[in-house]
Specification:
By secondary structure, this protein is of the alpha/beta class. It has nine helices and 19 strands. Helices cover 25% and strands 22% of the residues. Helix 2 (108-118) packs across helix 3 and helix 7 (226-239) runs parallel beside helix 8 (265-277).
Length: 353
């Protein structure tokens, strides 16, 4: 499919303007993402209408804890990525350069129908970064919105401003992966830069209606020092506010960082304490079962609002307006009058033919 966000250079190449990499391509070349390429003297998206698979998940798995808790979300991705993270937890999809991995062909309308049939209230663009299949994701979002189904981007936020404005205009929520608060980390371990991600976060929080949550995967010895976590969470409070939920997720050895140990629970709880002490109201520990740091508490009276055990909800103490039943303080987020009942189920789906 022919796509936008590129321009022609004087040297005969064309430059992709989707993300800060600005890949310059000769005829037949692909960008670093491997899915946007130059063919017949234009830019094309090789993965339009092709997916690595579909699955209905709990929305908490994205992770989103303040966006329609307990509801099912139809999740899918394609292939490729515009970052080169050595620790990628979905490397078999995001690092794939093999288009034959994309077994499921699905039009935007078919995905919207599948979401409706599965009972999903949202669709997540995930597994690999949706910014690289922007046109496909936007078309799916439009088809889903026609059926009252919302759209969620699970992204590293590595995208230029103009395409970001178009992409996020069609998204209802986003979980943005803030991989570190170190330019050195981004450069050496991700092949990217920190500042474009910080710029995007400020744009999303202050200039859009997208509900935003953050995730940082804590890697032992790489981005888990108390000093870095203190600086990162202070920046979040100063530039994004206290109400943006932050998830610290446990690393497991994968891709090109198999030599490191898994993240200890103590590291996650230390990070959560630092974030809370710096003023972030809602902080979570992910990829572990920990009721204290998995549940939602009122930031005013500290009463339990949403109890979680893994991806399963327990006690619910929000009123129909999303306020604490004990002190009437509004909990930031997007809530229905009642929680969903999907639980921890994972339901693989295939495109009906």
């Amino acid at each position: 499919m022919n796509v936008g966000y590129w321009h022609r250079l004087d040297n005969g190449r064309i430059q992709c303007d989707l993300c800060p990499r600005h890949c310059q391509l000769s005829e037949g070349q692909k960008g670093v993402c491997f899915v946007r390429s130059r063919a017949n003297d234009t830019m094309v998206l090789d993965t339009y209408g092709r997916s690595s698979g579909f699955c209905v998940d709990p929305v908490e798995k994205k992770p989103l804890h303040h966006f329609l808790p307990g509801t099912p979300i139809l999740s899918f991705g394609t292939a490729g990525c515009n970052l080169t993270c050595k620790f990628c937890q979905n490397w078999d999809i995001s690092k794939s350069t093999q288009m034959d991995r994309l077994a499921d062909r699905a039009s935007p309308e078919e995905i919207a129908r599948m979401a409706r049939a599965s009972g999903s209230v949202s669709v997540a663009y995930t597994y690999n970064d949706p910014v690289i299949f922007l046109e496909y994701a936007v078309d799916v979002a439009a088809a889903c919105h026609e059926k009252g189904i919302r759209s969620v981007a699970v992204t590293a936020g590595y995208i230029d401003r103009k395409p970001a404005e178009f992409f996020f205009r069609h998204m209802d929520a986003a979980n943005v992966d803030l991989k570190s608060f170190s330019e050195t980390f981004y450069h050496r371990l991700c092949g990217g830069h920190l500042q474009p991600v910080l710029d995007l976060l400020q744009y999303l929080v202050h200039e859009t209606r997208v509900w935003v949550e953050l995730t940082t995967l804590l890697i032992p010895g790489a981005n888990d020092s108390s000093e870095e976590l203190d600086a990162m969470t202070q920046w979040i409070v100063q530039h994004l506010g206290t109400g943006v939920p932050l998830h610290f997720s446990a690393f497991h050895p994968d891709w090109n960082m198999r030599h490191l140990p898994p993240t200890p629970l103590a590291t996650l709880t230390r990070a959560c304490d630092i974030a809370r002490n710096n003023g972030i109201h809602h902080v979570y520990a992910g990829n572990v079962r920990d009721r204290r740091w998995g549940s939602t508490y009122c930031h005013e009276c500290d009463q339990l609002l949403i109890e979680r055990s893994g991806y399963t909800l327990g006690a619910w103490n929000l009123d129909p307006l999303g306020r604490c039943r004990f002190c009437q303080t509004r909990c930031p987020g997007v809530f229905d009058a009642k929680p969903g009942t999907w639980g921890a189920r994972r339901l693989p789906m295939t495109v009906p033919r």
